[in-house]
Amino acid sequence: MRRVSSQMDNMDTQANLRLQESRLNKQNNQIGSQRRIQELRDDPIAAGHLVRYQSYLSRVQNFEKNAQALTDQFAQREGYMSNSLDVMQRVRELAVTGANGVYTKDDMKNMATEVDELLKELVQNANATGSDGNSLFAGTDTKMKPFDVEMGNVPGSGIPLIENVRYNGNVDSADVEIDEHKYLSTDNAGNRTFWAEKQHLYGGRDGSRWQAAADGVISVDGAQIKVNAGDNIYSLVSKINDSGAAVKASVDSVTMGLNLETTDAHQLWLQDVQGTSLNELGIIKDQNQKPPYNLGSSVRISGGSLFDTVIALRDALLTGDQESIGGRVLGALDQGLGNLAACMAKSGSEYERAKLNVTRNSGSVLNVTQLISNEGDLDISKAATDMKMMDYTHQATLSTAAKLYSNTLLNYIK
Question: What is the dihedral of CA 42, 46, 49, 50, to 10 degrees?
Fold first, then answer.
């Protein structure tokens, strides 16, 4: 109930003026920010939609950035791999030339000089870094130089040459999110890309009586396999074969030792994560040794890298061993070329997938931005018209109020 008094008109006028000023100020703020919703209570439903759209837009933009970063990384990797493939093609040409038996030992030494330079180029490609300074072929250990070179005296050469190339990275892969709960794996381990042959490992210790004394965990090419107390060598073989790792395990029928064979060209990566199962079987040394150079002294291993193959070719050319060049070396070169081409194909397919995700996410950004605009953006033409009408109403109210209360004390002093 309102009380009728002499101040009622004045109070109503003042209240309506404040309300008009508030509406005019809100309209000014909307035009200044070009946003329709200034507070949640302006439109609760639209505000809820707007928050969800903005959150999704932020995620999509991150997905686009991730996919673009992967695209750049894959493109750089593919460039170095393509150059390495050209190097290996030239190395193979020299191997075929050196194996035909028509060249003298001096001619073959001259070929060895070129092969040695091509080997240096191959090592340089394998140790390449991206535009961000991270190693391209070191797995997830991107701050590490992937390959170390060991120099030594080689028969037939009067100067030290590259005698061995050792891998320093790891075999881990990083999963990068490129869509909602969708990931693209970046598998850039150098001991896969620059490997030539399938690797075979032959354990020399009799494991027929071995039994796990306690629960443990072993790692085979990055795949962790649980070993339960009481497991024997046959149980371990079964678990390795079922782990999904690109490794086939078996028990040697003669030595009863554990044999491992990779199903594609890469270097074996073995480790006791918890317990000492592989150490007890004589496969690796203690846990203080870092893979892949932690194999036990009784283990025999075959299958080398591209570097090993090129080094073998160079050494055979230096000594004039045509038989080795035309047999084992040339076969290893062909396998290495095949593996490098397969790695290039895999990298190219990953590049195309990442590029497709960049395109899709870019389109999603535009669509979500349109939704945000529909919910939160201000119709400028309508807002300008409303503001003009509010301003006209406000001025009219002030004018009317001035006329209603134009009398002053001087009107009564006459």
Answer: -60
